Amino acid sequence: MAFSSIPVLDLSLSRDPETKAEFLVELRRALLEVGFLYIKNTGIDFALIQDVIKNGKAFFDLPTEAKLAVQMKNAKSFLGYNVLGGEVTAHRTDWREQIDLSTPHDIASEDAPLYHNLLAPNQWPAPDLLPDFRPTYERYIAEMSALSTSFTSLVAEALGLRSDAFDRFFDKDQQHKLKIVRYPDLDELGVPPKDNEDEAQGVGPHKDSMLTSYLLQASPHRGLQAQNVRGEWIDCEPQDETLVVAIGQGLEALTKGVCASTTHRVLSPGRGLGARYSIPFFQGVSYDATFESVDVPEPVRKEKDEIVKQDGGRRDDVEFTFLKGGRWKHLGEATLYNRCKSHSDVAQRWYPQLWKMICEDREKDGIKVEESMVLQKGERGTTEQMSSSSTEIQAH
Q1: Neighbours of 74 (CB within 10 A)
Q2: Whose CA is closest to 180, among 221, 237, 131, 218?
Q3: Tens-digit pLDDT profile for residues 153-198
Q4: Which of 2, 24, 160, 182 is the most core-located residue (most Cβ within 10 A)?
Q5: Residues 6+ apart with CB under 8 A from 70
Q6: Do the beta carbons of residue 84 and residue 345 sit within 8 Å?
Q7: Cα–Cα distance measured from residue 307 to residue 236, given in angstroms and rounded to the nearest whole number
């Protein structure tokens, strides 16, 4: 049957030999039937979580010029600050502002593949304004990198594979990414009361790429929803001391559809509720990886087939982009193309040939992308920026 709630798994059970088998059964059920789950008792220090939330919120209180100093379009890497309304999903504006960070890398050499531009140093806010921001997030990214690697091993075991079954898809210095996201409420956005407030879009329907993502819901607002196979939207409301795990397109592709990559979205906070904050961490995969797969044991494949049969087939509102035999040879090529679709300002500045290809693809498909006037209020007045971009989003 289609899921009607999001399962909660206790990660501490996986650390106890007496309860690990029980945990793996629950995990397999969540992977095959839902593709979305909460995990608790993650092992991440609570004090660190609080520092992550405090510093993340503080970033958005910086003066406009301080945030624009680390704007995403300053670099080829798609790391940095993105202004309110700077992206579009499902051809509608996403009303959020955010900063993208990752595990650090040196700038790629000139003879490296173009998609290696995604590997780069972070753009950090000025330390005199936020002295604890960088050390806090460097520590959190490092701990989440270890957690995601451990969890992927558990995923492999839950599918009846060796715990290291996915290791070959990772680099030794694997890049993982993180976003800090702020969703203004309807009053701040200036949405007229007569508009359909239930459908105000924080981020539109999408699937995460790569393998797994781990969302820290950093405020008590509801808004995150996952879509079941009947097309119904199921609330994934905040629960204390948990992370929300979403299965990505990469894991679905590697398991030939056994693991479910679930469409999800975020609705803007209701009128007068204040901004919603969210900090998703995205487990990376080697950009040099090709579109291969792992051999999931037959009993697990049959279990998945039976689930699909009971559900009467799958319903997805988002196209599946990570397919073997498609237009791209390496995952990095597909990722770079999709990042360019999401961030037209970066694409036009640094990747004009890819941007031309995207425009031609859109024209061929008859796609019109919504343009939006972005009003960003800073401490020294209001700046207006025109922005248009496309789908392929990773944010919760």
Answers
A1: 16
A2: 218
A3: 999 999 999 999 999 999 999 999 999 999 999 888 887 776 555 5
A4: 182
A5: 80, 81, 99, 123, 124, 125
A6: no
A7: 22
Name the nearest CA neighbour of 330 among 101, 116, 168: 116
134 phi, psi to nearest 5 deg: -65, -50
| Cβ contact 152:158 at 8 Å | no
Residue 234: CB partners within 8 Å, gap ≥ 6?
Answer: 3, 4, 5, 6, 225, 226, 227, 228
Report yes or no: 215 and 246 within 8 Å, Cβ to Cβ.
Answer: yes
The residues pairing with 375 across neighbouring beta strands, listed in sequence order, are 384
**Phi and psi at residue 153, in whole multiples of 5°?**
-65, -40
Which tokens hold the place of 363? 């024209």
Supply 220's token pair.
């008590």
CB contact at 8 A, 184 and 95: yes
Q: How far is CA 9 from CA 30, 85, 205, 208, in A?
A: 9, 35, 25, 20
Show the tokens assigned to 327. 């237009």
pLDDT tens for 208-258 read 888 999 999 999 999 999 999 888 999 999 999 999 999 998 899 899 889
- CA distances 168 to 41, 91, 172, 293, Å, are 28, 36, 10, 11
Which is more confident, 371 or 181? 181
Strand partners, 290: 330
Task: Compute the residue count for the chain.
Answer: 396
State mean pLDDT over 33-61.
97
What pLDDT, on a 0 to 100 scale, did the predictor assign at position 194? 62
pTM (predicted TM-score): 0.89
DSSP category for residue 71: B
Place of tokens 């594979």: 161
